[in-house]
Amino acid sequence: MANRINFQFDDKLKYQLNAIYSVVDLFKGVSRQDEGTIYRNVNRIKKIGEGDPVRNPQIVKPSRLLSNLREVQLRNMLFIDNELKGNNFTIEMETGTGKTYVYLRTILELYKTYGFTKFMIVVPSIAIRKGVEKSIEMLREHFKALYDGLDIKNHAFVYDSNNPKKISSSFVETRDLSIVVMNIQAFNKGTNKIRQSDEYGQILWEDIKYISPIVIIDEPQKIEGTARKKSASLAAIEMLNPLFILRYSATHKRLFNQVYKLDSYDAYQHDLVKKIEVKTVHGSIPKDYPYIRYVEFTKDLYAKIEIFCVEQGGVIRTKQFKVRGGDSLYECSGNLDQYRNMIVMEDPHKLKKLKIGKWDDVLELAVGESNVNMSDEEIIRIQIRLAIKSHLDKQYKILKKGHKIKVLTLFFIDAVNKYRDSSAPDGRGEYLRIFDEEYARIIADDRWNRVFKEYPELFKEYKDVYKVREGYFAVDKNKNAVEIENWENIMDEEKLKAKSQEDIDRGIELILEKKDELISFEEPLAFIFSHSALREGWDNPNVFTLCTLKKSGSDIAKKQEIGRGLRLPVDINGNRCTDSEVNELTVIANDYYDHFAAALQQDFNEQAGFNKDEVTYDVIYNTLKNAGIPENKIMELTQPFKQELFDQGIINKNGVLTRDARKIETITFTNETLQEHSIMLKEKFVEAMLAKGTRKIPIKNGDEEPVENGKHSYISEEYFDKLLKELSMRMSQRTMYQVKIDNKAFIEECASELNEALRYKSIRYVYHIETGKAEFDELKKFRMADPSVQQLFDELEGMETGKSEFEIINYIMYHTMLPRLAIYRIISRLEKKDMLKNQDILDFVTQRLQEKLTDFMAQGVIRYEAIDGYIFDESTIFETEQIDRSMLDDAASLVFKTNPESRRAVHKYYKFDSKGELEFAKRLDADENVLLYTKLKKGGFVIDTPYGEYSPDWAVIYKGDNNKARLFFIVETKIDKDKKDLNKVETTKIRCGELHFKAVANDVQFKQAKNYDDFLQKIGVK
Fold first, then answer.
1. How far is CA 864 from its chain centroid?
2. What is the pLDDT of residues 347-394, one digit of tens each?
């Protein structure tokens, strides 16, 4: 048996002390009255030896309590309340920051300071109750040292419905400190034993009501009910007539007299919890497969799906579409054969699966699911491999940094038989078999076993796979692992069967028993498999990797589950590690990153109560600060500012923007200081709320409106109008190019290059590993960063998909427009032509043929010919860019305002991509020999080329030697590039430009210039 590690607790952590004394200070100076043992129910028949109930000291004057509450809220930068809401007080503490420690120590402080003796800790589940029991046991010695030897374990007990009388002697009648831990299920129904009379007429429920216990609710949001209907659990707590209620959670639904706040953002920013890294694993599907993924149910009541899609001349790619009932996937896909006859069967609904039919078959997909079930085992294998490597990598880095911390990895699985399978010869389930294989392979690899070689004394039994991994599941009385029927759909423990609950309880006890040992290196167990039924039972600070092996990775995207690994780690001496460089939790999920990240972000922000329309304390504080309010006045103005927003209808009583929020610009502040800073306050408030994402304040920023970028007024003058018309006449004619290709050389080169390209190519699955880190923005909104992508490959040589040679030739012909005979001659020369039956390889070959054809056409362009009746409109030729005011105000912006006094530019403004182009424009605008010029917008005037449409940069009319002749130039600026520096595409397009203008206007010269001096030299200006 490994040594049990004694956790060391720091009694001076500032954030925990703040939470504790925020509650203790509520009762400073509040009058209390000890009513002793005077009992109202005089008709009750006492048993022999039975005592009288002893009440908590009663609060006499609550006005001081309200005053204290406001002082505490001001101190903690929280909105100030004007009334006591049923003596409920809210303490918000992020998961993993010591919430249980805080409320247990708060109990002891209230007892020591004010003599309060009766405390009831109410928990929503067995798992949380057992966690509280474990915390009491672990904190005994710590609290003894702080409170003159007081042993909290001697003053605390768990209510047992089989022994209800203990609550009389140990809680109701005692004059000493007494803490009872109770499941809400023990008293939230009228039929509970505690609420029934015994043979003597005693009703324990009535006795508890009389003594006015102080109630601590752990995770109150789980028993809250709805805003419209109070839950039976909450009603039962209020019926107890508690002296006051303390609500502790990281994820409150409602806030009652909030006295302390340590949210996800604060915990993350101050390194009080581990950082989060996410890795998702999913496979790339063969493009012959009718892949469909249900991405999301949209706000406008569509289903957004992802399928394969192709456009003529392109390759098959994934693309997302919004669909409703009756929509054809075949049409959406660009007529890909695998989607033929597939339609969306009915309009989507957020509570239903999406139904897609093909003849008599119906496919049903939930949000986040796809119809790809192939290679699931390989994805699981990759996940397990990543988890083991992550584990070893983290363990090595931590030890190298000098921390004696043992790393743990937790696997969440979806079924017990995936771990233990009685039908298998060796009893191992699928996941266990894969783990054992991967672990054996990895620890034999020199890249990964360095931690064992360098620290042999810490890992004496690392080769024994039976000792390094174990599973914790719900177990029956014979200690056999069992499945929990329909667990994933039962979130309320009250709906569980009694036997299932007992099985879960036993599994949790097994975990908690070994919690202290697991962080010792003498215990070789490091990889833990757990069923999701124990989702709140597992809680060990040294979990550094959390891997979910469920079919759908979305289930792990829950803050409470990820919270199992957020606590700061503990070394072998029981001390917390605060090194932010090593404190990172890696979550490995079987999912698409975009879906997982969206689910995790939504859950974090919903649990944190993030509302894009809510005017929070942070918004008001930053608004006042950014508006220039003096630092010493900000705190005292937060409440008046909020009150004025409410009084004038901008926000409602819950602090959320109303429909009238758009009128913010018209309100008048009554407070003198606010009135003095009115303009800036409104501006900064609107900025803050827009940044938060609200749509209730329309964006009306005159500085961002487009700037009118029309032609200069002088362009309408007869002289300039004539110049422009002459230029337009020379540019309006469209042309087509003619090419001459050496067919034999083309076929031979294609076959040769494809044989070389396919020589080392194989048919394979591609697996994507996407990795991204969690972060918070400045508005405290949780988000996942864009991922980096890694690919793994699984070879699938010889895979047949049934494509005939006829189908292959047709596919290539459709996308390349090559003649059928030419395609046949090329593929008949291929050494591995059977590989073209695979869609990915076929796409690769098609693209290479298209590229080769384009290159041959570019080399073979011999001339351009004008197309009769096919011309550009002048407005298209001289179309210009839209300019925003912000571009003009930005000194770094490459926008040029032309000089109207120079009378040369067609338009008022031009926008450029480089400083070289900007300098070229300035020289044109200042050159007295330039009669007229304009920058040509990309796509406005185009020349067709083998490499696609091409737009030159400039149109220039230049003065001749006799000051009368006009020279027309079309200029392509390749800044700082000589002709030899151009690539083949640039060279071809410039040659095509020259040929185009030879065909349409013999007095137009087409020039390429690397700068303005080069342009002048090429047109013969000295």
1. 53
2. 999 889 999 998 878 899 988 888 875 456 778 888 999 999 999 999
CB 445 within 8 A of CB 395: no
Q: For residue 668, give the amino acid letter.
A: T
**List of E strands, 666-816:** 706-707, 733-739, 764-776, 782-784, 788-795
> Could you write out the DSSP letters of every residue in 801-857?
----HHHHHHHHHHHH---HHHHHHHHHT-TTGGGGGSHHHHHHHHHHHHHHHHHHH
**Closest C-alpha among 265, 197, 892, 880 to residue 607:** 265
Which region among 204-213, 481-490, 1011-1020 has the lowest average model confidence (pLDDT)? 481-490
The tokens describing 268, both together, are: 């993350």
The H or E element containing residue 109 is helix 99-114
Q: How far is CA 83 from CA 22, 87, 641, in A?
A: 17, 9, 19
583 Cβ contact list (under 8 Å, min separation 6): 271, 273, 274, 275, 568, 569, 577
CA dist 645 and 641 (Å) reads 6
Distance CA 898, CA 796 (A): 62
DSSP 942: -
At 705-715, the pLDDT tens digits run: 557 788 898 98
Burial of 1003 (0-12, 13-18, 19+ CB in 10 A): exposed
Task: List phi, psi (to 5°) of 526.
Answer: -135, -20
Following DSSP, what letter does each residue of 544-568 receive, concatenated? EEEEE-SS-GGGG--HHHHGGG-SP
Q: Where are the alpha helices (DSSP H) in 411-488?
A: 430-443, 450-454, 465-468
* Angle at CA of residue 42, ends 41 and 45, nearest 5°: 95
Residues 167, 203 contacting (CB under 8 angstroms): no
- What sign for the dihedral angle of Cα 217, 219, 220, 222? negative
| Dihedrals phi, psi of 600, to nearest 5 degrees | -65, -45
Whether 53 and 210 have beta carbons less than 8 Å apart is answered as yes
CB-based contact 199:77 (threshold 8 Å): no
3-state secondary structure of 310: coil
- Cα–Cα distance for residue pair 550/476, rounded to 1 Å: 23
Residue pair 850/313 in contact by the 8 Å Cβ criterion: yes
The Cα 246–Cα 142 span in angstroms is: 23
Helices (H), 213-351: 232-239, 264-269, 329-332
Contacts of 109 (CB under 8 A, 6+ apart): 20, 21, 23, 24
Beta-bridged to residue 162, according to DSSP, are none
**Predicted pLDDT of residue 863:** 92
Top pLDDT among 336 and 560 is at: 336
- Does residue 281 carry a pLDDT above 80? yes
How far is residue 461 CA from its own chain's centroid? 39
- What pTM, to 2 d.p., does this model score? 0.66
Please list the residues that pair with 530 across neighbouring strands. 412, 472
In the predicted structure, residue 313 carries a pLDDT above the cut 60: yes
pLDDT at 272: 92
Radius of gyration of the chain (CA): 37
Which of 1007, 614, 957, 915 lies closest to 781, judged by CA?
Answer: 614
Model confidence over 465-492: pLDDT tens digits?
Answer: 988 988 776 555 555 655 555 444 434 4
Cα–Cα–Cα angle for 335, 341, 342, nearest 5°? 90
Question: How far is the C-alpha of 513 from the C-alpha of 381, rounded, in Å?
Answer: 30
Q: How far is CA 735 from CA 692, 731, 1006, in A?
A: 52, 11, 15
> How many Cβ atoms from other residues are within 10 Å of residue 89's Cβ?
24
Q: For residue 949, list its beta bridge partners.
A: 944
* pLDDT given at position 408: 93
